[in-house]
Structures are given as C-alpha cells and as structure tokens.
C-alpha cells in the first residue's frame, strides 16, 4: 500500500506532503505515514503497546505545519504486515534506527508508553540518530526482574491465536470491543478517526495476536533496558518527559509516578519533566498541545546544547 496526497505549500515555501506506504526495515515491513514539509525537522512518532498510527492524529495536526512528522505501526500492528521476528527491545530499536536513517537522521523521537523503552534503547545504542526526545507518559519500571524468559517461546502461540481469531471472524468483534474498553479508561476523548478505520485495524487477527505478544514481551524488554543502561550512556540531548496524572489514583501514587518520570528526565542534563494533572495515559489524544509544546521545547533547547 502506498500513496500520497497532493503537495501543498508549507511554511517558508517548503513543500508539504502526506504519504502512506509500506517500508522495509530489515526483515520486517512497517506501515509509515509521513506529513509536513520535506525540509522540516524530522519527528519519529512511536505508539504504545498495541497502538496504531492514528493515535497521534490530534498531535500531528498541531505538528505538521513546521515539522516533518513520521508516524508508523510496529510489525503486526496498525496496517503493518505480520512480524517475522518476536518483539524484543533490540528488534524495536532496530526498527526505529532504520526509520531514522530513512529520514536522513538524526531525528527527534516522540514515544508513548511502552515505546519509551524502544526510544531510550535507540538513544543508547545509536546516539548518532537521536537529536532529541519526547517521552509521552512513558513506561517506567524501577526494579524490573524476570524469573524465566519465555516470551520467545510463547509468541508463536499468541500469533496462532491471532490467526484463529481472524479465521473465525472473532477478531472483528473482539478487537474493536477491546480497543473501546481500553480507550474508555485511558483517554477523555473518543477515537480520532472514523469507526470504520478503527475496525479495519483492530478487526485484524494479526493485530490481536501482536498485542498479546507485546504484552508478553513487556517485562523482558524492561529487564533488557535496565541491563543496557549499565553498558551504554544516554546521550546529552534535549529530553522532555510528559507525565499523565489524570488516571493515577491517590496522591501518594501520583507522587511516586511523577518521581519515576523525573528520574527518566535526569538521564540527560538537558532533561525536563512536566506534570499533566488533567490528562489520562493517552496524552497524544487528551493533550496534543502538550506534545506539540514539548517538541518545540526540544527544538529550542537543541539550539543551546
């Protein structure tokens, strides 16, 4: 699948283009949607567990006039074909690296939730490809641990379950229902795209199987990132960490949650942590203005680094 919309004049006469295509990244293929002026600062947007490119729609609307915005679906998610390899921290960092290189890198990585693991891994493994970062209510595990590594062994079962759901058409019912249930608790607003688009994505058995596989791989990726932190430093680039507190219950839990994100911000001397008391976990839907402000803050800070 590929295509683009007619070009239009962007800021300062630059050409703005919207394009949707499948891109080869190593052994995998991913669905990429690119918008904004070709000469604008490149932003690479990565969704949380089970997310799709359209999760960023309200944020992209605020970013695309001055930035080259690249949103994508990880292998097996959104409109990307089924994955070849199981989801691991190294695979996800490799996908980001390939997309950053394709964009002409270095890029500003904007990562939500679990994708924060992948963005941080990219920065530590390929600092040459990262000029700044915005972590949008990122996952944070203060003491990750594992007794047995089983994700690689169980992933084929999750994939098979997805195939079964797709073949029996259960995916067309369970997927959209699951998406609505999750969004009800993680956002104050509805879907940013028509229901038909949501069904076309979350009605795919491949997506359901991949969501299960990512959930299974979560803890192992947290452990792998903790080990990577011991070996590779985080580069001294601008970093903004956005903390959603609207769905965190209790003042003590809110303080602990914000403190964890503050530790992430301290990975670099140019890090800032911002509390968003009114936003739920899907900040890119609830507070797209905060995402746009964070990107602008990174760009300003980049001039002084």
From TrEMBL:
Lineage: superkingdom: Bacteria
Residues annotated as domain AB hydrolase-1: 44-294
Pfam families in the cross-refs: Abhydrolase_6 (PF12697)
InterPro entries: AB_hydrolase_1, AB_hydrolase_fold
Record's keyword terms, sorted: Hydrolase
Gene Ontology MF terms in the entry: hydrolase activity
Name of the protein: Alpha/beta fold hydrolase
Native source species: Actinomadura physcomitrii
